[in-house]
Amino acid sequence: MTRISTPFSAKTTAAEILTGVDLSGRRIIVTGGASGIGAETVRALRGAGAEVTVATRNPGDGRRALDLSDLGSVRAFVAGWSGPVHAIVANAGIMALPTRQVAANGWELQLATNFLGHFALITGLHENLRQAGDARVVMVSSGAQLRAPFDFDDPHFERRPYDPWDAYAQSKTADVLLAVGIAGRWAADGITANALEPGYIHTNLQRHLDEATMRAFGAMDDEGNLLTPDYYKSPEQGAATSVLLAASPLLDGVTGRFFSSANQEAELVQGGPDATTGVAAWSMDPSAADRLWDYALAATANAHEASNAS
Ligand SMILES: NC(=O)c1ccc[n+]([C@@H]2O[C@H](COP(=O)([O-])OP(=O)(O)OC[C@H]3O[C@@H](n4cnc5c(N)ncnc54)[C@H](OP(=O)(O)O)[C@@H]3O)[C@@H](O)[C@H]2O)c1
Known about the structure:
By secondary structure, this protein is an alpha/beta fold.
């Protein structure tokens, strides 16, 4: 399969992606759209005329309440939605929590927030996506998906030692597999799904990282001042690939693919400790995507039954 290329680069901003594009009448949900990359995604989509709903834990002006780690909150959001959804940008996320934290239902918090909550949201809005006729699902993953496959034996670190980066990595692998799973299931509804890595951007995401880790990224000096290495992007550039996948006509009909922060389709590589670029074969594996779909469907259904029973 030929890899898709675009005229854009790692330096292209989200607004530049949408130059000349009219999104009037398109209703788009951006999770975690109140800060960081999400806020810039929202700004660019609104700038092109889209009606954007910001789904956030802190609702307010133009924002709707959504806590992805709480299935009750996800279900309330879904129940409160009516009419078509033209795109969902699954952007909200948390990274590398230093110790194992769990949601109220016992799920490891990164998996709950980054993947399972989004799975419940997107599958809950399937009919609304179908109504749009040409809806797009955008999974904001990460280069971290290169680090670890999804661990079907122990996804919540109940038996294996907790590792902050492995927990983040498997949640981001799961995000890519969800795009693959949607591509394989919902094409007849006109729904496409793709995933991306935004690159390195200074945002609130790094709040759990210690100074040694920030220095290892080249993002902090010895005095604790933030540095911006050349390979870092501004938030406006960091939002570009999300916007490309959510709304650019260049991606019409494209589904089940992974795009790099340079706004090009990524190369398929073997994941592992030495992998630095591309998308891991384990993230794009259709059989893993099927297995994950079944796992997530059962997990979210069981959690619903448990909360009804309590
Ligand atoms: N920045 C980077 O270098 C980088 C690199 C690779 C991938 N990414 C990915 O990019 C995405 C956006 O991250 P960012 O860098 O823009 O970080 P950010 O500024 O921290 O934004 C993440 C957003 O996620 C939301 N969020 C967290 N927990 C939530 C929950 N339980 N329910 C609903 N929303 C929740 C937060 O929204 P509220 O607190 O307002 O609810 C926050 O606005 C993430 O998926 C991240 O993994 C970022």
